[in-house]
Write a structure and sequence with these properties.
18% strand; heme biosynthesis; Rossmann fold; single chain; 2 domains; 10 helices; 4pyrrol_syn_uPrphyn_synt_sf; elongated
């Protein structure tokens, strides 16, 4: 998408993920009767399930009956990337137009009744409390299970240094998560020096934009929705305004 606007994009991986509690995850997935549905706010939660399903016996149980039984219940998702992974494991996603946790929480609250069976929420150790809090306020039970931890990518510092030494100061830097801001920003500030004011900082969505603002970065654009098309259009508009 960025290429279509004449930009040259360099992707620098920021995060590494360690999957945990997978036995516990599959144990819970083995009892659909205990839950009212599933909630996914990250592609990593689906990756955790896919790792479980690599084991033949578990995959067999999933295909034989579990998938069908879960398909009688909603699988709520935050966006299109997560939705496509839900489809890959044979479930039907709902709420993929939400785009962020706040809107997904509203969507779930409009469909679930208080005091129904708990929704199972496989999530990361750094999950925000927006969705759990919104559901709790409406009396909708949610059972969170941490299935992955986020750490800084081992090559991050080296990759950023290499980029700046080979390509110079970028016209724009896009962050895709608050963790990305946390792990990258100090390196970018150090490498940019006084030229940091020349960089247009963009965010994939409002949560990331909030983290950027809290860290003192001016946000020149936030994608209208977390899609490649909206992000590319937003960056193009921001750079055109600055005559970059």
């Amino acid at each position: 998408e960025l290429g279509l606007y004449g930009f040259e994009a360099t992707l620098i991986p920021v995060l590494s993920f360690e999957f945990i509690s997978l036995e516990s995850l599959f144990e819970k997935l083995s009892h659909p009767e205990c839950y009212g549905g599933l909630v996914f706010t990250s592609p990593r939660a689906l990756e955790a399930i896919k790792i479980c399903l690599k084991e033949n016996s578990k995959n067999e149980a999933w295909l034989k009956s579990l998938k069908q039984r879960w398909n009688t219940k909603p699988a709520y998702v935050v966006g299109k990337a997560t939705a496509s992974l839900v489809e890959e494991i044979g479930l039907i996603p709902q709420g993929d137009k939400s785009g962020n946790a706040e809107k997904l929480a509203e969507y779930i609250c409009s469909r679930e009744k208080p005091s129904s069976s708990a929704l199972l929420f496989p999530c990361g150790a750094l999950k925000r409390e927006v969705l759990p809090t919104a559901l709790r306020e409406k009396g909708i039970p949610l059972e969170s299970l941490t299935v992955y931890q986020t750490t800084q990518h081992t090559d991050l510092q080296e990759a950023l240094s290499r980029y700046f030494s080979q390509q110079g100061i970028p016209a724009s830097v896009v962050f895709f998560s608050p963790s990305g801001v946390k792990f990258c920003l100090q390196h970018i500030q150090k490498l940019s020096g006084d030229f940091i004011n020349h960089i247009k900082f963009a965010a994939i969505g409002p949560t990331t934009a909030e983290a950027m603002e809290a860290a003192g970065i001016p946000v020149c654009c936030t994608a209208e929705s977390p899609t490649p098309q909206d992000l590319a259009a937003g960056i193009q508009k921001a750079l055109r305004l600055q005559n970059c």
